[in-house]
Design brief:
- Keywords: DNA recombination, DNA-binding.
- Pfam families: HTH_7, Resolvase.
- This is DNA invertase Pin-like site-specific DNA recombinase.
- Belongs to the site-specific recombinase resolvase family.
- With 187 residues, the chain is α/β, with parallel strands linked by helices.
- The protein folds into two domains: 120 residues, 3-Layer(aba) Sandwich (Rossmann fold); 35 residues.
- The protein contains seven helices and five strands; from the N terminus they run βαβαβαββαααα.
- The protein has a five-stranded mixed β-sheet with strand order 2-1-3-4-5, with helices on both faces.
- Helix 1 links the parallel strand 1 and strand 2.
- The longest helix is centred in the middle third of the chain and has 34 residues.
- The radius of gyration is 25 Å and the shape is elongated.
Amino acid sequence: MDIGYARVSRSDQILDRQLNELQDAGCERIFTEKASGSKDSKRPEFDLCLRMLRPGDRLVVTELSRLGRHTGELANLDEALQERGVGLRILNLDLDTTTPLGKLIFTVIAPVAQMERELLIERTRSGLAAAREQGRVGGRRRAVTDKQIAKAQALYDEHRFTMAEIARLCETSPATLYRYLNIGADQ
């Protein structure tokens, strides 16, 4: 039986492409999750998928990176699957470890996946450093503008409005205002 596993790293990403490819590949069951693929991240659906695999089954993924990116982690997974008589099929590489050539290619490609990840991290850090040199700061934009904060602070200092009313007038949430307003310890 072919059992598919689809994963995206963030909750705002969509699994549709992977699901379509796994269905087209003939997977009888597909496990999905939205979780980071980092080494120490929790992936309960992946763990469940691995427990379900039986001798003669194949784990099918669209890309090697869906399983992980660290050479040791991938090698351990491959070894564990082989010991259990379970194959691995990676669709975008047209790779199947149930064949001798597939096993060889997997051992060559796993380190490349880790290098690709390390290069991505290096490029991201370099880009962030260049942006900082130009005075830009990465990260999420502030939820409110300086003008909104000034207006909210003035309304708060008047002691005529509740925080919910101030938030409504400033088009934001009370929780956001609590982060930005200068509120004394007596409040």
